[in-house]
Every structure is written in structure tokens, then in C-alpha cells.
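Q: Start with the shorter request: fold the first protein.
A: Done. Sequence, then structure:
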Amino acid sequence: MIILLCNFCMKSLKILITLILIIVTNIAFCQETFKVVVDAGHGGKDPGNTGNGFLEKKIALNIALKLGKSLEQNNIDVVYTRKSDVFVDLFDRANLANKSDAQLFISIHCDSHTSQAYGAGTFVLGLHANQRNFEVAKKENSVIFYEDDYNTRYEGFDPNNPESVIGLTLMQEVYLDQSILAASYIQNSFVNNLNRKDRTVKQAGFIVLKYTYMPSVLVETGFLTNKSEGIYLNSEKGQTEMAKAISSAIVQYRDDLYKNLSIENTNFEQQNDLITYRVQIAASNKLIELKPYNFKGLNSVNVIKQGDLYKYFYGIYNSIDKAEIALDHAKRYGFNSSFIVRFKNNLPLSIN
């Protein structure tokens, strides 16, 4: 009787340890570093726009530094493209972002217009839908004229030619949905938290966004050519409020992104021998939200982290026959390189 009781206790203890390991590893994942690149537009010899005597480069930097500090207080790692009044090439800004392996790129700017336009807007990379969007992009892209050998570096890109924009959109297309989602969080924060005029999320050909391999958003915090708005953006109050509004949006974007993920940790043992099969459809070093629109409309996608890679699987099946049917289904959705992986106790064993 005592032996049986001890065996029962040992089994219970093993189960308890397993559960603790699962909880601890999942908590550790939830606390995994989320990294944001904060890019203060212009700088140094490039003042940006100077409507009403205000300096875009100075205002953008002040907001960027305040934004970074707020993000760090929310357990987000921050990489700055500049922290002082220096000129940084657009190409170098993107390179810095890519080397940091960040999850989000935010570029801070101030707008200008010939009228008394006002309000904050957010942009993602894409084809401009109207002349106004093109003019905004042209203004920001003209920064390349401050750079040496810009014609070679940007492969003949001409900020003044609308047709040049078409070539910009291809590299960022894979991140477009996430970029729009992040921009929407920021735009909504401006409207809901600061009662700013809603200028909506727009697409335009910003070269600083082209070379970033992550979701990327350019923020126009307001119009310096509108005197009252310029005074607001040039003030400590205005810069602090704008930074906090952007920060709260990014924190919410991060939290919702992780909340909507189904993560399975593979670094623990289970006490049975459950054999299952899954169809691996993709792998990435970036965490992608498990929404059908991110997987060509495919539902029932789950993700497992192994090392530095996130592996995305379609379905969980208890027989190879069902997995083969799912494999054909995945290929019909365009995942032609997908394959079946055999699992034992949620650990991948072999590839068929």
C-alpha cells in the first residue's frame, strides 16, 4: 500500500513539475523582447520642413526620444536611428533597423501644406492614391539629395517621378498587412487619446520604408505650416502627448499580437507517447499573427518556436492519411513547398 502510494506521489510530482515547466516557459515567451526602431526624421544638414520658423528635425527628435523612453518603461527594447542633431542617410537608417532584427519600425516626421491643413496622419509603403499622398512622399524622399552618390545607391530613384514609386512597393509587400495594422493602432490613438483630426492611414512611396524588412510606419505628427499646430508640436506638452499616444498604440499592438498567437513550447517532456502529424507551411525569424489573411486565407495555422525560428504549421492530425489530405489542401492555397512533420509529444521527430 505504501509502495503504491509512493508511486502515485511520484507520478503526481512528475505531472506537477511538467505543468510548472509549461507555465514557466510560456511566461518566459510572453516576456520575450519586443524591439522597436524609432527613427527621428531628417537631422543635421537636413532641417526638414521649417513652416512658421519651426524645425522639423528638432521636433521629430524630441518626440522620438520621448517615445523611446516611454516604450522602454513598457519593457520594449528601443533602437534609435539618431539621438542627436546629425544627418543619417535613409539607406543607413534601414540598414540599422534590419541589423537590429526589430519587430517594428516607426519614422517620426512633421507635415507641411500650402493651406492651413492640420491633424496627425500615418503612412505605410504603397502606391499613392492621389496627388496629395505623392506630395507628402516626395517631400520626405527629397532627403536623398543631401546624400553623396544617391543616384547609384537608390538605383536611379527619382522622388519627383511618380513612376519611380512603383518599384518601391515590392520589398515591403510581405509586411503590408502588419504595417497597416500597426498604423491603425497609432492613428486611433491620436484620435481617441488626443482628439486629433483623423487623417486616416494612407499609402505612399516613402523610400525610408522600402528597405526595412519588418512592419514599418511613417508618422506625420502634424503640420508646422499651421501656426497653432506648429506651436503645439514645438512645445514640451505637445511632444510629450504625441510620444505617449504613439507609445500606448505600440504597446497595445504588441500585446494584441502575442495574445492572438498560439505558441507551443517544445522544451519540455510529456509523460505519454502521443504521435501526431502537421503540415509545415512556412518558417521565419519574425513572429507573424495567426490570422488567415497572413497565410493566404488558410485557417487552423499554429506556430512553434525552435531556436531563433518560428515554424508555422497547418493543422494537427492523428494519422498520416489525414495529414496528406491537408498537405494537398495547403498546396492548393499556394504553399507549394510545404511538407509533413511527424511529432511525438509535441516534439518534431522527422520530415516525410
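Q: Next, the second protein, separately.
A: Sequence, then structure:
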Amino acid sequence: KKLPFLGSYAALALFFKVFGIVNYIVFMFGYTYTFLINPGYPKNDIDSRTGEPRNKFRFCDKCKIWVNIEKKTNHCFECNICVEGYDHHCPWIGNCVGKNNYKYFYLFSIFF
């Protein structure tokens, strides 16, 4: 037996199904890229032959490399490595959030 109000609810149900599928796809894309992409591990930025001023750099005792202060590089004690643009270590993704995966982390968090 066909109910008279089923037509309007069927369109609404279809909208929520499509919205849920799109939400899930964007969430999984953000999650996957956040934990797979390098968060911004720095290279040894200074060499004794370059002659760059050392006041922009500091030495990380844990990593044993020179890191650039202007790139806001900090040491993550969970991963035991320095990360450029370090924001935090996220236990949900098991990785640091840095300059390279920051936008994907936002995508992951908004659609969570």
C-alpha cells in the first residue's frame, strides 16, 4: 500500500544517503592522506661550507641536525623526530601534524 507522504521522504532519504556517502569518501581521503603524507621532516638545513648565518638555526640535540627557526620546526617526542610547522602529534592518525599534511588533517577533522 502506497502512503501519500512517502514521495517527499524518499527524496529526503536519497539526499541523506548521497550526503553520507560523500561525507565518508572525503573523510577517508583526509584520513588516508594525513597519516600517509610526510608531515614535514626537515633536512639538515646548514652546512659549514654554505656560510649562512647561524642565528636563524638551532641545533636539535635529539635529532642531531640543524633546524631552521623561521620554519617553526619543533621536536615531536612521540615520533622522536623534528617536524617543520609542527602543530601536534595526533593519536588518531598515529602521526604528527605539520606543514605538509595540515590541510588534510583539517579535512579529516571537519568530516569526522
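Q: Describe the second briefly.
A: The mean pLDDT is 81. The longest strand covers residues 57-60.
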